[in-house]
Design brief:
The complex is a heterodimer of chains A (about 350) and B (about 230). Chain A is globular, with a radius of gyration of 22 Å. In chain A, strands 1-2 form a two-stranded antiparallel sheet. Chain A has a domain of about 160 residues. Chain A has 18 helices and 2 strands. In chain A, helix 1 runs antiparallel to helix 13, helix 5 runs parallel beside helix 7 and helix 6 packs across helix 7. By secondary structure, chain A is an all-alpha fold. Chain B is built from 9 helices and 2 strands, in the order αααααααβαβα. Chain B has one domain. Chain B is mostly helical and about 230 residues long. The chains are: A mainly alpha (about 350), B mainly alpha (about 230). The interface between A and B is small, with 10 and 9 residues.
Amino acid sequence: MSFYIASSPHHHQRRTTAKLMQLVLFAMLPGFLAQLYFFGWGVVFQLSLAITVALAAESLCLIARDRAPSSGLQDNTAIVTAALLAVSIPPLAPWWVIVIGTLFSIVVVKHLFGGVGHNIFNPAMAGYVLLLISFPVQMTAWMPPTGFATNAPSFIDSLYLFLFQFTSEGFSLEQMRRIDTGSMLDAVVMATPLDHLKTQLGQGATLSEALQHPQFIGFAGAGWQWVNLGYLLGGLLLLQQRVIQWHIPVAMLGALSVCAILGSIFAPDYLPGLNIHLFSGATMFAAFFIATDPVSAATSSKGKLIYAALIGVLIYVIRSYGGYPDAVAFAVLLANLCVPVIDQYTRPVTYGHNKEAG
Amino acid sequence: MSNEYHTLSKDGLWENNPALVQLLGLCPLLAVSGTVTNALGLGIATLLVLVGSNITVSLVRNFVPNEIRIPVFVIVIATFVTLVELTMNAFTYGLYMALGIFIPLIVTNCAIIGRAEAYASKNNWYKAGFDGLMMGLGFAAVLIALGAMRELIGQGTLFDGAELLLGEWASSLRVQLIEFDYPLLIAILPPGAFIGLGFLIAGKNWLDARKREKLAKAPVEKAQRARVTHVS
């Protein structure tokens, strides 16, 4: 009988990358369903096309890099990247928008930097920024949420808009986005809550005036609050399943909250409050699904806290003082850039060594 | 003798290209390569300054004390930049306005002072002039390649606004190769310059690697001793 001695670690990780990614996709479901309910069928088309393009691009890249396509396809990372990008863009954006974004994410941001585990930037967010900078009109054309949309397109019309940018009756997305307000201005395009606040505050309105708009029912704007709650729910599931650790969501939301509370104390008329910052835009989605990307985030626990707090502060600063209404993608990319430095200075000290000796 | 000119041209245009290998002068390279016209204008300006400063530095190299050579080089370069700037102001005013601060900034282009220090201050004037010509051509070629790439992806055109540089007749040079309903704006914005330059450098390295692979006849693997015992 042989006495078998294994070296540490003795407790093995039972879950493969593929399994983890499946859990992430599963956890996106509540938020995804909320988006489906409030913003229509478009998100389904975006998701299907994004996943198809991502898998094709992933295979071609792996072949070009002399690797077996099956090895890369089985880990589901390309699907997660595609899904994260697909839910970030307006659901009725033309099909070529998501194709360009996904190709850039997979080919340039992921594979040119070395493939799975080697990308410095979050692929989905880099793709999103490329799209936002290149196609500002398409990337801000969100439909009014269900309950506000006068012309909510049917399944067929959504498909027509997605493929041809016109409904079967020949209306453009711009026309479909108009809502009937019943006043003499009977057709206005409704902006997202953050966009609306940015525009109104920029025109000199006070916060309470800007919040008069009928879409601010509930606590953070119709539709968006439920989408955020959906992603919060999914994120808690990820935490409970230990797919992600608490450091990043807590530090990011904490830093954002501190900034938002300070802003509300010192400039209550000009800066949106805590509820808007936490539950509108992409905050919850970012805290649990974007910033927690294990590849492009910081690695040590202390590093994760710094990294995520940096994202929270950047989101607040860019939302409040920048040119764009939401800031998640920019904040995450900027924080990704800081990760090597953060990792350098937060390297855990080996037990028995003092800090100076390293 | 001709062999040396051959080396100089090969270095300037490819092996030691100021933009792709030395990565010098990136500020103007990234900032004004939005269109072929701008790139061409700045490329020619840099080329003229580089040839002029290289020849002058080479001619005065024996009179300049080593300790103050850098200020002297800078004054020489600044003189040529001023000449080019005034010339452009007089004859290509539109382009002069379009390039703006980047013409005076040629003074600080490290590629120029780099050649003055590394080559012109050690060689005679005709060699230095030839080196300046080749380095300038190499730099201009990268500028134009990057400009063409960005203009094509970002607007679908080539030689847009060529009349600013070449006079009225050149407005017919503008070609619309692709009609975009929605061009990929990022290409003509600053991030596009960085991404584009990255692709150009990667392309050059890939070509070089392929050439090396062809040259190398399957090298013999030698067994290497590796120390596996504990090193204290």
